[in-house]
Specification:
By secondary structure, the chain is an alpha/beta fold. The protein has 10 helices and 14 strands. The structure holds N,N,N-trimethyl-histidine.
Length: about 350
């Protein structure tokens, strides 16, 4: 397993992070971890930065545009699966369930579940981007006046701390759509699922995952003709300029996205088109011509592979919902009530 890539930067020992009660709840902490992670990432031989920093307000807006692109099949495919099978999913959740969503996006997907559920009790969207989260939560409250909406500003790649679920009310169901799990390295995905088994004890996880498919389809999805994905990729540099006073010359970094079939993932990079130096908070970093900053991995999955990983993490596979072309899937994973730890 590679450990020099996205998400590795901010944890010396990922297992310790699971135990630590460390949650970013204010902008200052988020700011300093971006600066620290960027400086650490730029000092590596393969320069890298975690894709979680894509999502400031402008990055979130660009991502919402990606989701509407013809080439980007995952969002509409997952929405189609949710539309077709929401009732079935809601039956598995049972009455008075609460939904914990990891990485709340536009909140569009959860509405499909809420509309099908029998008296949903509470909705807890967890996201690192507090401003965006609060705007989205407010609109959801207006649409569902009787729903208890409790946004939780946190970095769920580090640690999830939630109040214990009151017993006998309804199940707690985790919702992790969009194949965001694909941003994790395999070991991190395992630890995340194990954490879900703990936080969701007695409930379940509804997990969306993008499936392995033709490299041409994958390539097009991350190299759209309008260049929105390129803008999204470069926004991480624009954000560093805005927030950290860095001086990245955006036009001197080319968008590069390709499918690495050996490890079943899309890799996104920003490639320096010339030899150049960049300043970040008083430090200079040089890029050779053609050198890249690795910004994202997006792993693709098989249903079998994911279910095996889930079992190892203490979850019990249930139904699988997919589209006719089997491009994307949603997995039901029960979190047994007597999970140790
Ligand atoms: C949000 C991680 C699922 O990997 O497809 C979209 C992010 N990056 N286009 C993905 C993304 C480039 C997306 N995930």
């Amino acid at each position: 397993m590679k450990d020099n890539l996205a998400f590795a930067a901010h944890r010396a020992d990922p297992l310790d992070d699971i135990a630590a009660n460390e949650v970013d709840t204010d902008g200052a902490a988020a700011h300093s971890s971006f600066l620290n992670d960027l400086q650490v990432g730029l000092a590596r031989s393969q320069k890298s930065i975690s894709p979680k920093y894509f999502y400031d307000e402008q990055g979130s807006t660009l991502f919402d545009r990606i989701c509407t692109l013809t080439e980007y099949y995952p969002t509409r495919t997952e929405l189609g699966i949710l539309q077709t099978h929401a009732h079935d999913m809601a039956v598995h959740m049972g009455p008075h369930a609460e939904i914990v969503e990891f990485g709340a996006g536009s909140l569009h997907k959860v509405r499909l579940l809420l509309d099908a559920m029998e008296q949903p009790r509470r909705y807890i969207p967890i996201d690192i981007s507090g401003d965006y989260l609060n705007v989205c939560a407010q609109s959801l409250r207006q649409a569902y006046p009787s729903l208890d909406v409790q946004p939780h500003i946190a970095d769920f790649t580090k640690e999830i701390v939630l109040a214990q679920q009151a017993p006998a009310l309804g199940r707690r169901v985790g919702f992790f759509p969009g194949s965001t799990l694909g941003n994790f390295e395999p070991g991190e995905a395992f630890r995340f699922l194990r954490q879900c088994a703990r936080v969701l004890t007695g409930g379940a996880l509804l997990l969306g995952a993008d499936l392995v498919k033709s490299p041409a389809v994958l390539h097009a999805a991350y190299n759209d003709r309008l260049g929105v994905t390129a803008d999204f990729n470069r926004n991480i540099l624009a954000r560093a300029n805005r927030e950290l006073g860095a001086n990245f010359q955006l036009h001197q970094f080319a968008h590069s996205a390709f499918y690495n079939a050996a490890v079943q993932r899309i890799e996104m990079h920003l490639m320096s088109t010339c030899r150049q130096a960049v300043q970040v908070a008083g430090n200079a970093y040089t890029f050779a011509e053609g050198e890249t900053l690795h910004t994202e991995n997006s792993y693709k999955f098989t249903v079998d592979g994911l279910q095996q990983l889930a079992v190892q993490a203490g979850l019990t596979p249930g139904p699988v919902w997919t589209d006719p072309a089997r491009q994307f899937c949603l997995l039901w994973l029960d979190a047994p009530a007597h999970h140790a730890g």
